[in-house]
Design brief:
Layout: E1 4-8, H1 13-23, H2 26-42, E2 50-54, H3 60-67, E3 71-76, H4 79-92, E4 97-100, E5 114-119, H5 130-143, E6 144-155, E7 166-172, E8 175-184, E9 187-195, E10 201-209, H6 213-222, E11 225-231, E12 244-251
Parallel strand pairs: 1-10, 2-3, 2-5, 3-4, 5-6
Antiparallel strand pairs: 6-12, 7-8, 8-9, 9-10, 11-12
Helix pairs in contact: 2-3
The protein binds S-adenosylmethionine (SAM).
S-adenosylmethionine (SAM) binds near residues 56, 57, 75, 76 and 121.
Length: about 250
């Protein structure tokens, strides 16, 4: 197919619909409960602990934590994801509360007193302005109880060298997904070409901010967190795709 349509992915529902089966594949879904168990071993949760899943996507971790008996609130700015998460938890009879919206813009009267906030599988750095990421971290800080935990999983920009162009290809249910990633001073340029039989190719482009371990540490401390542990070879999350930085912090 030679025709193609180029779309800036940004926060478009259609992009997330098209990539649903690529980014939330079975492997990732099945691995989430193990990740939550690992997190549970690190942070001091009690049976009455409340967990905030920021950028919860389709609710992989929200659902796993709820199955472990915790009270969970998941927040995501993509309605498509929230709808799926709500449908799944309704079917499973799990009492998870999902909120559709940008965490940074949640009203001031929002829920507070969480014991753990998770921001997993790179859910920071989506908006153009760095100030937005500070707003997200400050908002999470305000929603945690004193001493509450934050776990962040981010792509490590130092995993990319110079002008490296990283490509990958996957076929899911007959649809071909070709990814091309370059990193330019902590900005990831992402291009995804989707080829479906008898349809014009769709090329999505997006940019995401990446954070060096020094930068994320500085940002967290600026927002009132104390960094307890910072891993560049994660022991919690299964290595898949680019290398991750995992930060475990507490609200001071
Ligand atoms: C790669 S997905 C990861 C989803 C989920 N954490 C997981 O591990 O399956 C990133 C998600 O973060 C969400 N997101 C990014 N920034 C956000 C924000 N400021 N407020 C709410 N959701 C956000 C996106 O909409 C997207 O669903």
């Amino acid at each position: 197919m030679t025709d193609s349509l180029t779309i800036a992915a940004c926060s478009r529902r259609r992009f997330w619909e098209d990539v649903r089966n690529l980014i939330f594949d079975l492997d990732r879904i099945e691995n989430a409960p193990k990740e939550c168990e690992e997190i549970d071993k690190i942070v001091d949760l009690t049976p009455s602990s409340r967990i905030l899943d920021v950028g919860c996507g389709v609710g992989r971790h929200s659902i796993a934590f709820a199955q472990m008996g915790y009270e969970v609130v998941g927040v995501d700015m993509i309605s498509y994801h929230i709808e799926e998460a709500r449908n799944v938890t309704r079917r499973m009879g799990l009492p998870v509360s999902f909120i559709h919206g940008d965490i940074a813009d949640l009203p001031v009267k929002e829920d507070v007193g969480f014991d753990l906030a998770c921001n997993l599988y790179r859910s920071l750095g989506y908006e153009d302005a760095l100030e937005h990421d500070y707003k997200v971290l400050r908002k999470i800080h305000s929603m945690l109880s004193g001493g509450g935990w934050l776990i962040l999983e981010l792509i490590d920009p130092d995993d990319f060298y110079g002008n490296e162009v990283r490509t990958s290809e996957a076929v899911v249910s007959g649809t071909v997904f070709k990814e091309k990633i370059t990193v330019d001073t902590c900005v990831e340029n992402y291009e995804l070409t989707i080829t479906k039989v008898d349809e014009p190719d769709i090329i999505y482009t997006a940019t995401h901010r990446l954070f060096s371990w020094q930068k994320i540490r500085e940002m967290l401390e600026h927002c009132g967190f104390s960094v307890e542990r910072l891993e560049r070879q994660s022991l919690i999350f299964k290595p898949k795709g680019s290398r991750k930085i995992v930060v475990i912090a507490t609200k001071t």
